[in-house]
Amino acid sequence: MKRHLPGLIVLLAASLALGLLMGNVFFGLFTQTVPPAVLTSFSTATAHGAFLIYGAGAGVVIFLWGLLTIAGAKMFSRRGKS
């Protein structure tokens, strides 16, 4: 398990980074879509926080999907006869 730990840490970091990037992209779409007259500093800050939290959640889902893919690849790999 120790030899797989660095790869899992890289997978987790990349998944979370991708999720947070997705959150920032969707926050940018939110600020472009909602008229500035409707937005207050409080609603903008809470929306940004919510998008980042949902992005982090999406990153965790991407990480779990990656783990499932790794497990499935091991299960379906061909093993030759020795």
Secondary-structure map:
Elements: H1 5-33, H2 41-76
Helix pairs in contact: 1-2
What does this molecule look like?
- The chain is mostly helical.
- It has one domain (5-75).
- Helices cover 79% and strands 0% of the residues.
- The longest helix has 36 residues, at 41-76.
- The model has no long low-confidence stretch (mean pLDDT 91).
General shape: elongated
Largest sheet: none
Total number of domains = 1
Tell me the distance between the termini: 25 Å
Number of helical segments with 4 or more residues: 2
The gyration radius over C-alpha positions equals 19 Å
SSE string, helices as H and strands as E = HH
Keywords:
82 residues, mainly alpha, 2 helices, elongated
Task: Give a quick precis of the structure.
Helix content is 79%, strand content 0%. With 82 residues, it is mostly helical. It has one domain.
